[in-house]
Every structure is written in C-alpha cells, then in structure tokens.
Write a structure and sequence with these properties.
Elements (H helix, E strand, L loop, with lengths): L4 H13 L3 H14 L5 H7 L5 H14 L4
C-alpha cells in the first residue's frame, strides 16, 4: 500500500480507467485507509492539472474505483 495519498489516488484512477477494477478498488480502499475524508472532488482539486478535461478524467477514474464523488 502506498503511504502517499496522491500516489494511491493516481494508482486507483489509472487502474479504473484502464479496466483493472480489482486493482482500482484495492487502491481506493488503501486510499481511504490513509484518509477516510477523501473524495474524488477533493483529490481533483489537489492536483495541478493544466486542462480541466484531464482533471475531470482523473476524478472519473476515482469515482469508478469506488471513491465518493
């Protein structure tokens, strides 16, 4: 389990968007163990995306992985 929130978030989103749902759900669970108050919206705001569509896609992946929106 990654000990850095953003690492776990990127893993969860990437896995979900690539169809690796078991890995995505595990990463989302790990992420919520690190901080149970997190949501896709909160994490979307924390990363400095240049393009809104990239931020939205990241949040979409987090939602698919099982994080609250």
């Amino acid at each position: 389990m990654p000990h850095f929130v953003m690492s776990a978030a990127v893993i969860a989103s990437s896995c979900a968007l690539s169809g690796r749902m078991e890995d995505a759900r595990r990463a989302a669970s790990d992420l919520l163990k690190l901080d149970a108050t997190l949501s896709a919206t909160i994490l979307r705001r924390r990363l400095p995306f240049r393009r809104a569509e990239d931020a939205n896609r990241f949040a979409e992946g987090l939602g698919k992985a099982g994080l609250p929106i």
